[in-house]
Design brief:
This protein is mostly helical and 98 residues long. The chain contains 4 helices and 2 strands; from the N terminus they run H-E-H-H-H-E. It has one domain: Rossmann fold. The two termini are 22 Å apart. It comes from Molossus molossus (Pallas' mastiff bat).
Amino acid sequence: MGQTNYSASKAGVIGLTQTVARELGRHGIRCNSVLPGFITTPMTQKVSQKVLDKVTGLIPMGHLGNPEDVADVVAFLASDDSGYITGASVEVTGGLFM
């Protein structure tokens, strides 16, 4: 319960990412999105330890991510090293949603 708005907004981000990439690619403009999973932030600090332990048990990498994990992906996507990547939605989830 309570995931409808969140799910709809995530789907909207993915759709917008793909549309912008498709429409602006011919102008050399790339568009990608980053979809963070459970990342250690003030938001996750409000989640009970019981829930965090349960979620952590579902993550194949065995731990929550940290902000640097997300920042590294953003930096890569913003760099010339990702020059042929567009329309992608990159999950930074430790494998949670495989």
